[in-house]
Amino acid sequence: MAELPVPIKDLRLLDVKLGQLPTWLASLNYTPRAFLESCKRGHNRFYAKYWEPKRCGIAGPAMLITAYVVFSYYVVYDHLKEERWRKYH
């Protein structure tokens, strides 16, 4: 039995072919409410996949700690760069 074609606006990004990308982008809803809903869906997917207590492993906390370390390094990079050159001058 043949599958029914899915409307392009209902496809996920990974299911869109390169030729369909402009049409798919034009069909998206760009309101602030839609943006917040998509952020909420992404958070819920992340939480369900990596942070649920019954399936919680090391991946979720490791990603958060890694993001924290990278962000902290980014924030203080200018200060570290000046300290690095200070010993030679």
Automatic annotation (TrEMBL):
Entry similarity comment: Belongs to the ATPase F chain family.
Native organism: Micrurus fulvius (Eastern coral snake)
Role: Subunit f, of the mitochondrial membrane ATP synthase complex (F(1)F(0) ATP synthase or Complex V) that produces ATP from ADP in the presence of a proton gradient across the membrane which is generated by electron transport complexes of the respiratory chain. ATP synthase complex consist of a soluble F(1) head domain - the catalytic core - and a membrane F(1) domain - the membrane proton channel. These two domains are linked by a central stalk rotating inside the F(1) region and a stationary peripheral stalk.
Cited Pfam families: WRW (PF10206)
Main location: mitochondrion
Classification of source organism: Eukaryota, Metazoa, Chordata, Craniata, Vertebrata
InterPro entries: F1F0-ATPsyn_F_prd (IPR019344)
Protein name per UniProt: ATP synthase F(0) complex subunit f, mitochondrial
Key word Oxidoreductase present: no
TM annotation in the entry: 58-77
Record-level GO cellular component terms: mitochondrial inner membrane; proton-transporting ATP synthase complex
Highest taxon in the source lineage: Eukaryota
